[in-house]
Amino acid sequence: MQSNLAYFVTNLLVVLGVLVHMLRPLTKSSHKFASFKGVQRLLTRCKSDNSIPTKKYDLVVVGGGSGGLACSKEAATYGKHVAVLDYVEPSPQGTKWGLGGTCVNVGCIPKKLMHQAALLGEAVQDARKYGWTVPENGIHNNWETMSSAVQNYVRSLNWGHRVQLQSKNVEYLNAKGYFLDNHTLEATDAKGRKKRIVADNFVVAVGGRPKYTEIPGALECAISSDDIFWLKNKPGKTMVIGASYVALECAGFLTGLGFDTSLMIRSIPLRGFDQQMAHLVTDHMASHGTNMLWKCVPESMEKLSDGKIKVTWKNTETVEAGSDIYETVLMAVGRAPETTKIGLDNTEVQLHASSGKILGEHGGDLERSSVPHIYGIGDILEGRPELTPVAIKAGKLLAHRLYGNSTVQMDYDKVPTTVFTPLEYGCVGLSEEEALDKYGEDNLEVYHAFYKPLQYSVAERDASQCYIKMICDKEGDQKVHGLHFLGPHAGEVLQGFAVAIRCNLTREIMDSTLGIHPTSAEEVVKMHITKRSGLDPTVTGC
Ligand code: FAD
Ligand code: NDP
C-alpha cells in the first residue's frame, strides 16, 4: 500500500517537474525558479530514498543547547508536537559530551566550577591570616579529583535535561540534522540510521565550535575549550593563545590551580569591552602569576618525542621570534558557527557573508531568517551576544510568539555579562569608549572608585585593581549608560544593578540608595568622585 502511494507520488512529481521545466522559459521570477529547484530536489529524494521514514511535527529545533532546549520546552507547553535534535561531533582531539550544549558541557558550568576551584586555593592562602593552620609546604590541587567532580556534575545535568524533555513531552532525537530543503530535515543518528522530518516551523540553534589558527601543527598539537574541562590528566605547563573571554578565563583558573601558564595576546585584551577595565584585568593576572606574551602570534607547533609541544611565535611589533616547550597548548581564538555544516545551502536561508551566521530581522521578527518558517537563536544569530541567558530568553520569547499570540521581541540591548577571571569583571551597558563616541565627552560624567574589599584587609591582599566605573549623562538626573565592576563576585554584584539600568537608573537614584554595609557592592552606590575632577578616587575609611 505504502509503496503504491510512493509510486503514485513519484509519478505525480515527475509530471509536475516536466510542467515546471516547460514553463520555466516563460518566467524570469527567481521565486518560481526556486520552486523548480525544490521540485527537482523532492524528485531526487523520492526516487532514491522512498524507504526513509518521514515524520511530521509542529516545531523542530535543531540543537539541544541553551537556546534550543529552552525554546522546545516552552513550545511544548502550548500542546505542540515538538522535537529537538542534538548531536555532538567529537572535537579534533576526540572529546565528546552529552545533551545540553556548550554551556553545560564545555562552557559556563565547568568553567565556573574550575574558576571556583582556583579561587578556593587563594582563599586557603588567606585562611592562614585568619588563624587557620595551613600546611607549611603549601596546598596542592589534584586535577583528577577536581575534574572528575566537575564532570560528574555535568553528567547529572545531561541526565536532568533528558528527564525534563521527557516530562514536557518534547521528543529528543540524538541525531544530526541536515536540511534537504526549506521544509525537510534529514536526521542521522550515530549508527547512520536516517529519518526524514517535516515541520511547520524550524528553529536553528546549533551554536558554534572553537576555531583553530591555520599554522603548522595546530590541529594535531593544540586542544580547545572543547577539551580542557574533560582532560583526564593535568594539563601541566600551558600556553593559552587568545585574549578574549575564553582565553582569559582559562588562563586565569589554570594559573590559580598552580600550573605554569602563559597567555599569548596578539593585539588587545577583551576586544569590545571597556579597555581601562580590560587592562586592569590583565594587570591583575600578570601580578598573580600568568606569564603575558603581548603582541605575539603563534607561528608553528610541533609535537616532540616526549609528547611535549614546542611552540614558536613572533612578536608583531619587534619582529623578534620566541619559542618554548609546553605540556598543553590551548587555542582560544574565537568560535565558528555550525551553520555552514547543516545543509542551509539547500534552503533559502541567508547567512552573513563573513561570519556565516544566520541573518535575522525578517518580517519584523528579530529571530526570523529569510525563510519565514525557519528561525535562528543563540550563538548562530548574526550580531547578537554569544551568551547563555541571551539564547535562553530569545528561545522562550520565540516560542511565545509562535504559539502563544505574543508579540514580545527579544531586547538585545544592555545585556549584562561577567568575565570570570581571577578578579572578576562584570559590566552592563556602554563602555567608556562607546559612550564617548555616542554622546561626546562634554555630555558625560564618569564616576569612579578604587576600593578595597573588606576581606582583603586582614588577608593583606593587594587591591590595586579593584575598581568601579559608572558612565552617565552630565546634566539633569544623570541617566546611567554603563556600569563596570572589577572585584570579587562581580557577577553577583552586577545582576541587581542590571535590573536598575533596565529601569532607566539615574545617578540621582543611585545617590539616594543606601548601601549594604560592609560589602563591596555598596561602593557602587557610594561613588562620588568624577574623572573630570582629577581627584584621587581611592576609597578611604569605613
Ligand atoms: P549551544 O549551547 O552551543 O548548543 C548547540 C547544540 O547544537 C550543541 O549541543 C551542538 O552539539 C548541537 N548541534 C550542532 N550541530 C547540530 C546538528 N547538525 N544537529 C543536531 N545538533 C547539532 N555564556 C555565559 O552566559 N556565561 C558564561 O560564563 C559562559 N562561559 C562560556 C565558557 C566557554 C569556554 C564557552 C565556549 C562559552 C561560554 N559561554 C558563556 C557562552 C555560552 O556557552 C553560549 O553562548 C551558549 O551555550 C549558546 O547556546 P546555543 O543554544 O546558541 O548553542
Ligand atoms: P572571541 O571571538 O571573543 O575572541 C577571540 C580572541 O582570539 C580575540 O582575543 C582575538 O584577538 C584572538 N584571536 C583570533 N584569531 C587569532 C589568531 N589567529 N592568533 C592569535 N589570536 C587570535 O572568542 P572567545 O572564544 O573568547 O569567546 C567567544 C564567545 O563566547 C564570547 O564572545 C562570549 O560571548 C562567549 N563566552 C562568554 C563567557 C562569559 O560569559 N563569561 C566566557 C567565555 C565565552 P583580536 O582581538 O586581536 O582579534
TrEMBL record:
Catalytic machinery residues: 517
Binding residue positions for FAD: 112, 177, 379
Cofactor: FAD
Pfam families for this protein: Pyr_redox_2, Pyr_redox_dim
UniProt cofactor note: Binds 1 FAD per subunit.
Cysteine disulfide links: 103-108
Record-annotated FAD/NAD(P)-binding domain positions: 57-395
Keywords, ordered alphabetically: Disulfide bond, FAD, Flavoprotein, Membrane, NAD, NADP, Nucleotide-binding, Oxidoreductase, Redox-active center, Transmembrane, Transmembrane helix
Domain Pyridine nucleotide-disulphide oxidoreductase dimerisation: 415-527
GO cellular component terms attached to this protein's record: cytosol; mitochondrion
Record field: transmembrane: 6-23
Domain of life: Eukaryota
Positions of NAD(+) binding: 242-249, 334
GO molecular function, one term: flavin adenine dinucleotide binding
Keyword NAD among record annotations: yes
Gene3D superfamilies xrefs: 3.30.390.30, FAD/NAD(P)-binding domain (3.50.50.60)
Keyword Nucleotide-binding set for record: yes
EC number: 1.8.1.9
Database matches in InterPro entries: FAD/NAD-bd_sf, FAD/NAD-binding_dom, FAD/NAD-linked_Rdtase_dimer_sf, GSHR/TRXR-like, Pyr_nuc-diS_OxRdtase, Pyr_nucl-diS_OxRdtase_dimer, Pyr_OxRdtase_I_AS, Thioredoxin/glutathione_Rdtase
Single Gene Ontology BP annotation: cell redox homeostasis
PANTHER family for this protein: GLUTATHIONE REDUCTASE, THIOREDOXIN-DISULFIDE REDUCTASE
Family affiliation: Belongs to the class-I pyridine nucleotide-disulfide oxidoreductase family.
Name of this protein: thioredoxin-disulfide reductase (NADPH)
Gene responsible for this protein: LOC106176776
